[in-house]
Structures are given as C-alpha cells and as structure tokens.
Amino acid sequence: MIKIKTNKEIDLIRESALLVSKTLGMLAKEIKPGVTPLYLDRLAEEFIRDHGGIPGFKGLYDFPNTLCMSPNDQVVHGIPTDKPLKNGDIISVDCGVLMNGYYGDHAYTFEVGEVDEKTKKLLRITKESLYKGIDQFRAGKRVSDIGHAIQTYTEAHGYGVVRELVGHGLGKKMHEDPQVPNYGRPGRGKKFKDGMVLAIEPMINMGTHRINQLADGWTILTADRKPSAHYEHDVALINGKPELLSTFQYIYDTLGIQTDEEKPYHQVYPLNI
Ligand code: MG
Ligand code: MG
User: Fold this and answer.
1) Cα-to-centroid distance, 201 and ligand 2 (Å)
2) At what angle do helices 37-50 and 7-30 cross, to 10 degrees?
3) What is the mean pLDDT of residues 113-118?
4) 170 and 4 Cβ atoms separated by less than 8 Å
C-alpha cells in the first residue's frame, strides 16, 4: 500500500534527504585518484553522525557500510574497498540517512580525475533521464510513466536499462510501495496523488542491460563489464507537481558546476542553501 505523507512528514524526509545531499557535497571534495572507497565511507559516517543522523544503509538488510560505492562496471550495492580510485574511473555513490524516524536516500555518479568522453556522455544522459522520469511524477500520471520516459530516453542512445533494481516509495522505511521500475509501457500501475514520496533512480549501462551479482551477495555489475551510471533523487508530489527533497547543488558548489537543472522542481519550498 502506498503511504500518503502529511506536509510535516514531507519536511522530515526533506531534512534527511538534505543531510544525504550535504554528505555527497562533502565527498565531492574528497573523490580523487589515490583515495580509497573505504576512507570515503568512514568520512561519510562521521559526517552523518556529526549532523545528528544515522547512516541509513549500515545494518539495513545486513549491509556492512554507510555508502554503497560502485566503481566503473559496478551498477549499485558495491561494498567500499581499500582499492584506491584511479584517474579515469567513475564511481556511483549511494547514501542513506535516518533522522527523526524518516529516511533520505540519494545517489550520484562522480568522475575521478579525467574521464573519457564516451563515459561522460553516459553520465550526462543518465542524469538527464532522471529528470525525464521526475517530469512524469504528476497528478494523473501513473507509476509506469516514469520508467517509460527513462527507458525511451536512454535506449535512444543505445544504453541498457537495468531491470532487476528499481526506485521506490520512501518514508519511515527505506523501501516502501510502490516499486518504480526504470522501464516499461506507459499508463500502468497506481495513479499519482499529492503526498506521495518517491526515490527515483535510473541505473543505466553503457552496453547490455544484463547484470551479474558478485559472490559477496551485494555487488551488482554489468554482464559485459562496460560502465554503468546511477543518479537518484527523493521527490514529493505537492500541488500535483514534483518537488525535489534532495539536491545535487552541494556537489555542484564543490565542483564549480553551473546548472539550473533543479530549478523547475523547487516551486513550493525554494531551497535556501
Ligand atoms: Mg539509493
Ligand atoms: Mg533508493
């Protein structure tokens, strides 16, 4: 059953989502060749606890760490290792926070040093597809409209849309109804209503959509070992329109990136950060 949130609950989810956003902004400074994912994981845990939150993934379904860190051909759910990042790598960082009883959950794929143009394009198209999906989260639309938009946009570039992992509702639990696939035919599933909160998260592969899982029981990687990208936002439906609860702006401030990509999604509570 899809839980409809009150405005107060949405504000609490926003607080948790923004702590994730700030954590990703802090990490953006630290992600460079030579740094290990395990070091970044410790920094993130300390940062979240210092700001009054609890790492949302650590211990959830027995996941061992604060961050899911998935470099290059890893799609999601990578366990942080002590293998240093190299120039030209990409790394998908997914972070969760539990605070005041509500979860935030969002993700960004970072470039490490100088990344080749082909991989940069995968990152750009995947992030653009996230907003194509968010554009469908409107009163009167249905769950599968999100996945249809993401699939149409990314497959037009020859990319593969991961089927086995999906977006989800978000609130007192990290994973609530509905499941939000990143593929499918339009016009299916539950109708969207004000007060719904979703984590929308395309996982897009440069090559085949097929995946494998490592023997660690967690790490998902592409079957053809080509790179994969993952971007995730937490979004509430307010007055019939999508309102971002998370933001990439802290990352952009750190990296000196100018963009107004989030501007259409902050109608109700303009972010003052
Ligand atoms: Mg996530
Ligand atoms: Mg998620």
Assistant:
1) 6
2) 140
3) 98
4) no
How far does residue 269's CA lie from ligand 2's centre (Å)?
23
- The arrangement of strands across the sheet holding 203-205 comes to 160-161, 203-205, 228-230
DSSP label at residue 185: -
Q: At 266, is the pLDDT very low, low, confident or very high (cuts 50, 70, 90)? A: confident
Among the listed residues 230, 198, 250, the one whose alpha carbon sits nearest the alpha carbon of residue 71: 230
Cα(203) to ligand 2 centroid in Å equals 11
Neighbours of ion ligand 1 (CB under 5 A): 94, 105, 107, 232
Residues sharing a CB contact under 8 Å with residue 185, sequence separation 6 or more, in sequence order = 144, 148
Residue 105 Cα, ligand 2 centroid: separation in angstroms? 5
Measured from the alpha carbon of residue 173, the closest ligand is 2
pTM assigned to the model: 0.97
The pLDDT value recorded for residue 60 is 94
Q: Is residue 240 predicted with pLDDT exceeding 80? A: yes
Q: Quick one: average pLDDT of 118-142?
A: 98
Domains of the chain: 7-265 (3.90.230.10)
Cα of 19 vs centre of ligand 2, distance in Å, is 15
Greatest Cα pair distance in the chain: 48
Write the DSSP assignment of 111-140 as a string of letters. E-SS--HHHHHHHHHHHHHHHHHHHT-STT
Q: Which residues surround the ion ligand 2 when the cut-off is CB under 5 Å?
A: 105, 199
